[in-house]
Design a protein that fits this description.
- With about 325 residues, this protein is of the alpha/beta class.
- It has 9 helices and 8 strands.
- It has helices spanning about 35-45, 60-70, 85-95, 125-150, 180-205, 235-240, 250-255, 255-265, 295-310, and strands at about 25-30, 50-55, 75-80, 105, 155-160, 210-215, 275-280, 280-290.
- The protein has an 8-stranded mixed β-sheet, with helices on both faces.
- Helix 3 packs parallel to helix 4 (about 125-150), helix 4 (about 125-150) packs parallel to helix 5 and helix 5 packs across helix 9 (about 295-310).
Length: about 325
């Protein structure tokens, strides 16, 4: 009697506390000096890889490196000055990267403004859209030759659960007519997510081995995040007061898990989205279907064209 083939479980077996070793590999994490990015960097450093923290603040980056070194013996971590709102900083940073291979970049850095007024970068772009989307768009363009030279490299883009209920206004990408900080932030993250999906389509068309993978961290709160002084300090009182929230959301250490899996899991494929298991808000990372508005190819293509016009660059992945 023929035996039933085993269910394809390999792709779902993942221990967030024991990711695979990655000696000899190089990873760049934007915004790796604080928040979720710090924990992405810490967890990747624990695999033996070289981790580069892209950060505009040298003092904060050095504090993060010291914290990681105290928890990961022999950690290979260094700082790369990067300001995503400043194209000149991005060009200088990529020139100074000094690597012969880049196995993954995690587009994690972001800025969220809580109150008006609307702010602009030196180039006249709305700050959240410029940092969260246009900066990573430009960085992808600048890193393309190095990523192309690395077989199986990955571009991991961090979205946000806040983008699930938003839609882009392609005629007001920079919120000149409708500026509400929370909505503008959510739309900037939606732009990032659409970029990741469109990038996957273009990478497939180029028939290379570089993957574009989308992640979102769910709900992440500082009071549920373990202390990493001086990067992050959580008091006992904060922990106890916020314990009930742990039933719904999680700390930033757990929120890093989808990005870490997207970087390291050999079963991850381009165009996928990884998110927390429980309602997309907390828990171990799982493969989640793309939200319907992320499959809107026409909007994604128009956003890509707008990104090219606003930055003067087009990420290209053909040799």
């Amino acid at each position: 009697m023929p035996t039933t083939p085993p269910a394809p479980q390999a792709a779902t077996r993942w221990d967030v506390h024991r990711p695979p070793r990655a000696e000899g590999r190089n990873f760049l994490v934007t915004g790796g000096n604080a928040g979720i990015g710090y924990f992405v960097a810490e967890q990747l450093a624990g695999t033996g890889a070289t981790v580069v923290l892209g950060s505009r603040d040298r003092a904060k980056a050095e504090a993060a490196i010291a914290s990681i070194a105290s928890r990961v013996p022999g950690a290979r971590v260094r700082h790369l000055p990067l300001d995503l709102a400043d194209p000149d900083s991005l060009r200088a940073g990529v020139d100074a990267l000094a690597l012969d291979r880049l196995d993954a970049v995690v587009h994690n850095a972001g800025v969220a403004l809580d109150h008006p007024p609307r702010r602009e970068t030196r180039d006249g772009h709305e700050l959240m859209f410029a940092t969260n989307h246009l900066g990573h768009f430009t960085l992808t363009h600048l890193l393309a030759p190095l990523l192309l030279a690395t077989p199986g490299s990955r571009i991991v883009t961090t979205g946000s659960f806040a983008a699930k209920s938003e839609r882009l206004d392609l005629d007001d990408l920079q919120s000149t007519r409708d500026y509400r900080p929370k909505r503008t932030y959510a739309r900037s993250k939606l732009a990032q997510m659409l970029f990741a999906v469109e990038l996957d389509r273009r990478l497939r068309a180029a028939a290379g081995t570089t993957l574009s993978v989308l992640v979102h961290p769910g709900g992440a709160l500082d009071p549920l995040t373990p202390s990493r002084p001086p990067v992050h300090v959580r008091t006992t009182g904060e922990r106890l007061r916020n314990l009930p929230l742990g039933l719904v959301v999680q700390g930033k250490d757990a929120a890093a898990w989808p990005a870490v899996r997207a970087v390291l899991d050999p079963h991850v494929r381009g165009g996928q989205m990884w998110s927390p298991r429980v309602f997309g808000l907390r828990g171990t990372p799982r493969l989640e279907p793309l939200w319907p508005h992320l499959t809107d190819t026409a909007t994604a293509a128009r956003l890509w064209t707008a990104g090219c016009e606003l930055t003067g660059h087009e990420p290209t992945f053909t040799r």
